[in-house]
Amino acid sequence: MTQTQYPKSKKWLIHTSSWIICVLYFLVVYGLLWWVKVPFETILYDGAISALVITGTSYLIYTSLQFYLPKNKQFWKLFSFAIIFSAISVFCTRFCLLQVFSPEQVVYLTFSMPFRFVINFLVITCIMIINIFWNIQEEYEENKERKAQSERMVRDAELYNLRQQLQPHFLFNSLNSIIALIGSKPQEARSMTFQLSDFLRGTLRKDEKQFILLEDELKHLRLYLDIEKVRFGHRLKTIFDYDESILVSKVPVMIIQPILENAIKFGLYNVTGDVLITIDAYKEENMLFIVITNPFDIDQFENKSGTGFGLSSIQRRLYLLFGRTDLLITNTDNNTFISTLRIPQYD
C-alpha cells in the first residue's frame, strides 16, 4: 500500500466502523429497552439519540488520535480518555432525551446510567485500540517504504560507482596505447583517438540507463574491440555468434565489456601469436546466455590471484540488480578460459 492510499483507506475505515457501531449500538439499546417494557416511541428516540452520540464520539476519537501513538507505560492515558469520553457521551444522551421527554417518561435513565457508561466505555476503548493499531500499521508501512527507497538509492549509487570505476581503467590503457603509437604509427594513433572519442560519447549517453538492448551493447562492444585491435594489431581476432532474434533482449549497461577486457588481458598479454576471442549469445526460455572464450597460458594464469577487478565488479552488479550470485560462471578447458554470463529476461 502506497502512502497516497493511506488517507483514502483510513477515511473508509473511520466511516465504515463508525456507522457499523451506530447500527449495532441502536440494536442493543432497542433490545434492552424493549426487554424492560419501555414504550416504543421512547425506545426509538433513545436508541437513535444514543447511537448518534456514540457515533459522534467515535468520529471525535478518530480525529483526536489520528496520529497518536502511546509511549511505553502511558497506556493509562487511553483508559483515562475512554472514561472521560464515556461520561460525556452518557450525559449527552441524557440531556438530549430530557429535551424530548419529561423526567417521568424516562425515569429508567437513572438506574440505566451505570450500564450505559460500561457499554460506552467498552465501545470507546475498542475504537481507541483500533485507531492505535491502524496508526502503528501506517507507521510500519511508511518506515518500510522509506527503508526500501533508501536501499534502492544506495544500490543505484553503488551500481553507478562500479560503472564509473570501469571506465578510467579502460581509458588509461587506451591513452597509454595512443601515446605509444604517436611516435611510430601516428595514423593509427589518430584513428584510435577518434574511436576512443566515439566510445566515450556512447558511454556518456548510457549513464542514465540501467538496461539497454543487446543490439546496442554489441555495437558498443565493437567500438571497444576496434580500439583494442589498433593496440594489438593483427594478433587480436574476434568472432560474434548469435541469432538476430535475441538482439531485443535487455542487458545491464556495459556488463560484457569487463569480461572482454579480462579475456584480452589473459589472452594477449601472456600468449604469443594470434589470439581468437569468441562471443556467443543465445537464449533459453527466460535466460540470455553470453559465453566468452579466450586462450591463456596455464603457468601465467595460475600465478595470478583472484579473478580481477572486472569480473568481481560484474558479480557485484549482477547481485545488486537481480539478487543472485550465480549469474557469472568462469571455468577452464585445457588452455581455454570460459566466462558464462546469464541475464534473466523478465517481461
Automatic annotation (TrEMBL):
What does the record give as EC number?
Answer: 2.7.13.3
Which EC main class describes this enzyme? Answer: transferase
Give GO MF terms, alphabetically.
protein histidine kinase activity
**SUPFAM superfamilies listed in its UniProt record:** ATPase domain of HSP90 chaperone/DNA topoisomerase II/histidine kinase (SSF55874)
Residue span, Signal transduction histidine kinase internal region domain: 157-236
Q: Which UniProt keywords apply?
A: Kinase, Membrane, Transferase, Transmembrane, Transmembrane helix
- Output the PANTHER family linked to this UniProt entry: SENSOR HISTIDINE KINASE YPDA
Q: List the protein's name.
A: Sensor histidine kinase
What's the source species for this entry? Sphingobacterium populi
Read off the lineage from the record.
Bacteria, Pseudomonadati, Bacteroidota, Sphingobacteriia, Sphingobacteriales
